[in-house]
Design goal:
Elements (H helix, E strand, L loop, with lengths): L1 H16 L3 H10 L14 H37 L19 H41 L5 H25 L1 H39 L2 E11 L5 E15 L3 E7 L8 E5 L5 E10 L4 E7 L5 H6 L4 E2 L4 E2 L2 E2 L4 E7 L6 E16 L2 E11 L5 E5 L4 E6 L11 E6 H12 L5 E2 L2 E4 L3 H7 L5 E6 L4 H5 L6 E5 L2 E2 L3 H9 L7 E8 L4 E8 L2 E2 L2
Parallel strand pairs: 7-14
Antiparallel strand pairs: 1-2, 1-4, 2-3, 3-6, 4-5, 5-6, 8-9, 10-11, 10-13, 11-12, 12-15, 13-14, 14-15, 16-23, 17-18, 18-19, 19-20, 19-21, 21-22
């Protein structure tokens, strides 16, 4: 009994010591105001997308404003930090008639010869008079002697000299032969060659002066051989310095040898190199104007080089240039710095090109099939740009050139960076007799037209007669070419033609946008 009571007491004490669940729940409820429950904030996708778009737009706007600011301020800052002179407009002086070099030489030589003859005559007369006076004075002052003694003394003196001379001649027979041969050479060979030698010395002096205007233009390309090994190839041509616009040195050369070139290098007459870029080129004539920044040319080089003078290929003085002497300078046989002398054989051959025509100058100078360079007259003026691509098969190696007179306007436009407007029309003059016989209207006859050219795409055809271009009346092919040359490349022009119909020539009008021939 006592044990049972003891166990019950232990259990009662144990139950009293253990906390009850009700008491625990009451305690938790007492501290419920101190508890927090953290909830995740819901994501507003629309707001997030809107902010992202705004941020990206502001970034793009900032980039655009930064680029515009740089583009607008960069030239101003560059000019402020590195001031440069404005390039001058390239223009060539008008041609004027001058005296032929041979006329000047003939006039000078005739006058000089007359003066020399008069001087020789005067000197001869003076010497004769002096000799006579000396003889008279000697005869007057000589003492009177017996005539026989004088004669004997003179005879002895003469005999002694003659015997000595005979003895010398017998001892040195070779000397007599040499003296005789030298005298004959001087009289028969050397004297006639002196004018010939003098002439070539004068020609060479002209070449030395003009050579300072010549350069060698080299186009450097990078290629890969069969074994995938890289190498560089070069194509060179001759160039001539035509202008200095206070910012660039402008050089005229052929364009085709420079096609595909990664770098264009210019070598001046003092073997100094400089890099150049193509400023503008003409597809018709294959001519390009290259620009070399003056900052990359030393002062010593600028002092040694010279700008070439452009002359006239139409006339020289009162006569034409046919039959006048010329000098060819450039790359004539595949070698640079070559020179040849000759004469002009003709200059009336017409080369018809799209929207232009030029005069071809032919010479008797032998050259390679693809020469390059310039023709120079005796006044040290450039009268032609060498181009053998228009030669016939039987004259492939006779040097020819395009006349500089017809090229001046094209060269001026290229030098100023202006593109050459292109329509693709080949025009020629209409003979007055044929026009009267067939009743043709006054204008320039279109005998050909380039395929897919702006003129063909607008409907102009072969056989049409040009009568007006942009309101200007056209009477000759030259009128059409001059009118087109003065039209801006970005402006449409109105061309009026007359086209043959059943009974008469009907007038048709076209509006054409000029292009750049590629």
């Amino acid at each position: 009994m006592k044990d049972e009571k003891r166990n019950e007491g232990k259990e009662n004490r144990k139950q009293a010591s253990e906390p009850k669940a009700e008491d625990f729940s009451d305690a938790v409820s007492d501290f419920e105001f101190l508890q927090e429950k953290i909830k995740e904030r819901p994501i507003d996708k629309k707001k997030l997308l809107r902010r992202t778009i705004i941020t990206a737009s502001l970034a793009v706007l900032f980039g655009v404003l930064a680029c515009l600011s740089f583009l607008l301020l960069e030239p101003v800052l560059n000019n402020w930090l590195y001031p440069e002179e404005e390039p001058g407009v390239v223009a060539f002086p008008q041609e004027k008639n001058e005296m032929l070099p041979e006329d000047m030489l003939t006039e000078g030589s005739t006058t000089g010869q007359e003066e020399s003859e008069e001087a020789d005559e005067g000197e001869g007369q003076t010497e004769i008079g002096t000799g006579a006076s000396e003889d008279e004075s000697s005869l007057t002052d000589a003492p009177e002697t017996d005539g026989t003694a004088v004669d004997e003394t003179a005879a002895e003196h003469t005999d002694g000299n003659s015997s000595d001379e005979q003895q010398t001649d017998m001892d040195n027979p070779e000397k007599d032969i040499e003296e005789a041969s030298s005298e004959s050479l001087e009289t028969e060979v050397i004297e006639p060659l002196k004018p010939y030698q003098t002439q070539y010395e004068e020609l060479y002096s002209i070449y030395q002066e003009v050579e300072t205007s010549m350069v060698t233009v080299t186009g450097v390309r990078s290629n890969v051989d069969w074994f995938n090994n890289p190498y560089q190839s070069e194509g060179s041509t001759a160039g001539v310095i035509i202008a200095n616009n206070n910012r660039e040195l402008l050089i005229l050369s052929r364009k085709s040898p420079l096609d595909g070139a990664e770098t264009i290098r210019i070598r001046f007459c003092n073997d100094v190199d400089a890099d150049a870029v193509i400023k503008q080129y003409d597809k018709n004539t294959d001519l390009a104007v290259l620009a070399v920044d003056l900052k990359y040319i030393g002062g010593n080089t600028l002092q040694q080089i010279a700008v070439a003078m452009l002359g006239s290929s139409v006339s020289h003085g009162t006569a034409g240039i046919t039959g006048t002497p010329v000098i060819a300078i450039g790359n004539l046989f595949g070698y640079k710095d070559t020179v040849c002398y000759g004469m002009v054989t003709s200059n009336g051959n017409v080369i018809s090109m799209a929207d232009n025509e030029y005069k071809l100058i032919t010479t008797d100078i032998y050259a390679g099939t693809s020469p390059s360079g310039i023709l120079v007259n005796m006044d040290r003026e450039v009268i032609g740009i060498i181009d053998n691509s228009h030669n016939h098969d039987d004259t492939r190696n006779l040097l020819s050139a395009i006349g500089i007179t017809e090229l001046k306007e094209t060269i001026a436009m290229l030098s100023n960076g202006e593109p050459i407007p292109y329509l693709g029309i080949y025009a020629q003059d209409i003979d007055a007799r044929i026009r009267n016989e067939q009743g043709l209207p006054q204008g320039a006859y279109i005998f050909d037209i380039d395929m897919d050219s702006p003129a063909m795409l607008k409907g102009i055809q072969k056989g049409d007669i040009l009568v007006r271009v942009s309101g200007q009346e056209i009477r000759t092919a030259a009128d059409y070419m001059n009118a087109l040359r003065n039209v801006p490349i970005d402006r449409s022009i109105t061309i009026v033609v007359r086209r043959a119909s059943i009974n008469a020539y009907e007038e048709m009008q076209f509006t054409i946008q000029p292009a750049i021939k590629q």
